[in-house]
């Protein structure tokens, strides 16, 4: 594996290998006082974030550090990134500075793909940490890791993804990955928040959350960004909450074993009732914890694994 | 100017090769001709067509001379077989007054490779709010008005523009894009854009404006021209409007006749254009609509851009691609080789209809004795490989880079004078 840009077309064996690595890393580090493995010593990992996301950036940073890589952060304020330098020039600078891996978050869909193209000659790996409305593959991997912990094998499991699928890179990456791993995915959203051509996706579509809940093994809520409320995608936060929010009443409709996921940050009271978010059924803090191990596994497969097998 | 003989050429690709004698800028004889001291262009059976007319060219001067000038764009046009181009008004400053349009026309004459006709803006600053001085610009020779790049979206302004233009005998050319439906749009709204996470540009944003404008044009009794038709629905609307007697004409670009949104998979902005590349089904419908005359003509939407405006992330890239030097070959590939058009049909869509739409009296004329020798000679059997860097344009943003294309321009004549020959600008 050279880059991780997307989960579309991902080889299920490859995905499983990453998830297995993440699980064994988690086990190896559990209870340790010094959580540091020497695997990526001497390797340089640079995070370039054109969009603020403390959550994702810190997760990658810790993952790199626990693998003993040298981790450098570039964020959009106060750097050339914020001064209008082109993405291409930034890419060439990072390559010249000796980056082994660039982790990029960017508001433009496809930015990570373009970056990988510009870095081809330098041989630098690229991890897509979220590009516009396109994909966020490590989020999907950490979601899958969390679901595997709670549910075991994902084959045949019924998972609903609820909310703003249209603008959600998390939803896209999860649809590709979860279906590749054999899960049955249902998208639950109003028609305004579903992408054109969703009928050709390997999913089923529903507008009725209540009807889906009793047969689900997991429900994954998506963020509803504030600007959508003014874009006419739905009439009001209240109506959204009534139709698609995961209330305490709805939690009771779910089977006993079912898991609740949310990529954060959460809009408590609208997307998810506070009591649901804090219930043991919710795996939201597990997602954050698994995020570090999954990202360690991704860096391992990109930067260390290949040399061993080559 | 010495007389010229085009030896062994086939007007409209029909019949046995003949000689065409050009004297004093007009066709003096067709048949077997001999003329002392005449320069000879050996045709080897090449197809002779009236010179091409492009209703939709962005020459970027004034304002972005780093990407194209009237001189370089004229050279690209002549090499592409064009003898007249319409330079769009979205320059900087905008061509919304007689000073700018007069400047563009004068520079065009100084360069002298093609007739450069400035397009005047419909509204001041292309802002869609206040009508530009259409009458003053028409007096300065403007035949076509357009806010291209922007849609004249206010229905009242569009109505007034159509009504007002009637007295001037000019045409209003609309870039049909309902702006509220394309906020943030990056690609054709469909499966491909959904997959790539690119905000959609729905076909209905074009079709709703074209429908509205056809109704307004019919109501006003005015002439409307629809720029770069890209969807199946627009073709349907045009068919319906024409059947009702609307004076509407329409153009399609070469790239919309060939390329689809499948090309977006790499996120390479060389494929970014406005309106966006549509689906294979749309391409099929557009080809047929052009063959049937529902769409009147081909126009390039030649849009040069600097490297930094294209070699970037998709959403930051400017829309547009070069078109002048590849248009003929794309028409050969999509319309001639598919049997949808013969060479007379090519003459119709690339020369005669655009000249009629813009009201040019001496372009798109029949190949007959006494007519202006404004001609394009085409080798239908030639193939060539596209190299953007070798184009006469300053910019090199062609989506056809590296493609092998059929059909090549052998020579271009403007009123008897050779402007381009063998792939080079004539001295
Ligand atoms: Zn346009």
Automatic annotation (TrEMBL), chain A:
Residues where carbamoyl phosphate binds: 55-56, 105, 136, 139, 264-265
Single biological process term from Gene Ontology: 'de novo' pyrimidine nucleobase biosynthetic process
Similarity remark: Belongs to the aspartate/ornithine carbamoyltransferase superfamily. ATCase family.
GO molecular function: amino acid binding; aspartate carbamoyltransferase activity
Biological pathway: Pyrimidine metabolism; UMP biosynthesis via de novo pathway; (S)-dihydroorotate from bicarbonate: step 2/3
Quaternary organization: Heterododecamer (2C3:3R2) of six catalytic PyrB chains organized as two trimers (C3), and six regulatory PyrI chains organized as three dimers (R2).
Superkingdom in the source lineage: Bacteria
Keywords: Pyrimidine biosynthesis, Transferase
UniProt: L-aspartate binding residues: 83, 169, 223
Ranges of residues in domain Aspartate/ornithine carbamoyltransferase carbamoyl-P binding: 2-149
Gene that encodes the chain: pyrB
Record's keyword annotation contains Oxidoreductase: no
UniProt xrefs under InterPro entries: Asp/Orn_carbamoyltranf_P-bd (IPR006132), Asp/Orn_carbamoylTrfase (IPR006130), Asp/Orn_carbamoylTrfase_sf (IPR036901), Asp_carbamoyltransf (IPR002082), Asp_carbamoyltransf_Asp/Orn-bd (IPR006131)
GO cellular component: cytosol
Cited function: Catalyzes the condensation of carbamoyl phosphate and aspartate to form carbamoyl aspartate and inorganic phosphate, the committed step in the de novo pyrimidine nucleotide biosynthesis pathway.
PANTHER family in the record: ASPARTATE CARBAMOYLTRANSFERASE, ORNITHINE CARBAMOYLTRANSFERASE, MITOCHONDRIAL
Protein name: Aspartate carbamoyltransferase
A Pfam family it matches: OTCace
EC number: 2.1.3.2
Enzyme class, first EC level, given as a word: transferase
TrEMBL record, chain B:
Entry-linked CDD domains: DHOase_IIa
Catalytic activity: (S)-dihydroorotate + H2O = N-carbamoyl-L-aspartate + H(+)
Cofactor: binding comment: Binds 2 Zn(2+) ions per subunit.
Alphabetically ordered keywords of this record: Hydrolase, Metal-binding, Pyrimidine biosynthesis, Zinc
GO biological process, one term: purine nucleobase catabolic process
EC number from the UniProt entry: 3.5.2.3
Alphabetized Gene3D superfamilies for the sequence: Metal-dependent hydrolases, Urease, subunit C, domain 1
Positions that bind Zn(2+) 2: 148, 175, 228
Involved pathway(s): Pyrimidine metabolism; UMP biosynthesis via de novo pathway; (S)-dihydroorotate from bicarbonate: step 3/3
Binding site residues for Zn(2+) 1: 56, 58, 148, 301
Domain Dihydroorotase catalytic as annotated: residue spans: 45-231
Cofactor(s) the protein needs: Zn(2+)
GO molecular function terms noted in the UniProt entry: allantoinase activity; dihydroorotase activity; zinc ion binding
Alphabetical list of HAMAP family matching this protein: PyrC_classI_B
Protein purpose: Catalyzes the reversible cyclization of carbamoyl aspartate to dihydroorotate.
Similarity remark: Belongs to the metallo-dependent hydrolases superfamily. DHOase family. Class I DHOase subfamily.
The protein, known as: Dihydroorotase
């Amino acid at each position: 594996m050279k880059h991780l840009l997307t989960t579309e077309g991902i080889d299920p064996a490859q995905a499983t290998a990453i998830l297995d690595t993440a699980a064994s890393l988690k086990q190896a580090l559990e209870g340790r006082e010094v959580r540091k493995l020497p695997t990526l010593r001497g390797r340089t990992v640079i995070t370039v974030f054109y969009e603020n996301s403390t959550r994702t950036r810190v997760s990658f940073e810790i993952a790199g550090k626990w693998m003993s890589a040298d981790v450098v952060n570039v964020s959009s304020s106060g750097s050339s990134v914020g001064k209008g330098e082109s993405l291409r020039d930034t890419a060439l600078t990072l390559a010249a500075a000796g980056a082994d891996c660039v982790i990029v978050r960017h508001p433009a869909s496809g930015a990570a793909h373009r970056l990988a193209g510009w870095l081809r000659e330098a041989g630098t790996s690229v991890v897509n940490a979220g590009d516009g409305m396109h994909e966020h593959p490590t989020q999907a991997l950490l979601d899958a890791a969390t679901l595997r912990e709670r549910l075991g094998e994902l084959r045949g499991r019924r998972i609903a993804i609820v909310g703003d699928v249209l603008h959600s890179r998390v939803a896209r990456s999860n649809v590709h990955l979860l279906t590749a791993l054999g899960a049955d995915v249902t998208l639950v959203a109003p028609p305004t928040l579903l992408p054109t051509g969703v009928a050709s996706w390997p999913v089923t579509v529903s507008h009725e959350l209540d009807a889906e809940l009793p047969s689900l093994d997991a429900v994954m809520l998506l963020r509803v960004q504030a600007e959508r409320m003014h874009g006419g995608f739905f009439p009001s936060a209240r109506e959204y909450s009534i139709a698609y929010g995961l209330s305490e009443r709805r939690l009771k409709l779910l089977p006993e074993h079912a898991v609740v996921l949310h990529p954060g940050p959460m809009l408590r009271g609208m997307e998810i009732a506070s009591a649901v978010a804090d219930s043991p059924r919710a795996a939201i803090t597990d997602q954050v914890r698994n995020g570090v191990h999954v990202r360690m596994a991704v860096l391992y497969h990109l930067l260390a694994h290949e040399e061993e097998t080559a | 100017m010495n007389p010229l003989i085009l030896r062994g050429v086939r007007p409209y690709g029909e019949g046995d090769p003949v000689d065409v004698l050009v004297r004093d800028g007009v066709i003096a004889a067709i048949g077997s001709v001999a003329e002392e001291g005449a320069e000879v262009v050996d045709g080897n059976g090449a197809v002779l067509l009236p010179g091409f007319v492009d209703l939709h060219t962005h020459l970027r001067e004034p304002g972005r001379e780093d990407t194209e000038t009237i001189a370089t764009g004229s050279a690209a046009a002549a090499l592409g077989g064009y003898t007249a181009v319409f330079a769009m008004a979205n320059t900087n400053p905008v061509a919304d007054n007689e000073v700018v349009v007069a400047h563009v026309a004068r520079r065009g004459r100084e360069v002298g490779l093609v007739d450069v006709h400035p397009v005047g803006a419909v509204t001041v600053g292309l802002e869609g709010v206040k009508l530009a001085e259409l009458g003053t610009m028409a007096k300065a020779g403007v035949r076509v008005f357009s806010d291209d790049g922007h849609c004249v979206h206010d229905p009242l302004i569009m109505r007034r523009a159509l009504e007002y233009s009637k007295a001037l005998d000019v045409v209003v050319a609309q870039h049909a894009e309902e702006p509220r439906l394309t906020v943030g749009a990056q690609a054709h709204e469909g499966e491909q854009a959904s997959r790539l996470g690119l905000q959609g540009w729905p076909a209905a944003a074009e079709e709703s404006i074209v429908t509205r404008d056809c109704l307004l044009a019919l109501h006003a009794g005015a002439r409307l021209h629809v720029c770069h038709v890209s969807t199946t629905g627009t073709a349907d609307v045009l068919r319906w409007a024409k059947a009702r007697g609307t004076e509407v004409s329409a153009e399609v670009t070469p790239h919309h006749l060939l390329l689809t949104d499948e090309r977006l998979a790499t996120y390479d902005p060389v494929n970014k254009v406005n309106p966006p590349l549509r689906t294979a089904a749309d391409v099929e419908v557009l080809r047929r609509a052009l063959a049937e005359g529902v769409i009147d003509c081909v126009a390039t939407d030649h849009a040069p851009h600097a490297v930094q405006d294209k070699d970037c992330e998709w959403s930051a890239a400017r829309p547009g691609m070069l078109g002048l030097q590849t248009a003929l070959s794309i028409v050969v590939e999509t319309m001639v080789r598919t049997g949808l058009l013969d060479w007379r049909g090519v003459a119709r869509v690339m020369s005669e209809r655009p000249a009629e739409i813009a009201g040019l009296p001496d372009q798109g004329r029949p190949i007959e004795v006494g007519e202006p020798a404004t001609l394009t000679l085409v080798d239908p059997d030639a193939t060539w490989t596209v190299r953007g860097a070798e184009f006469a344009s300053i910019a090199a943003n062609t989506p056809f880079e590296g493609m092998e294309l059929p059909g090549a321009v052998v020579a271009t004549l403007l009123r008897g004078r050779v402007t381009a020959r063998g792939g080079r600008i004539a001295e």
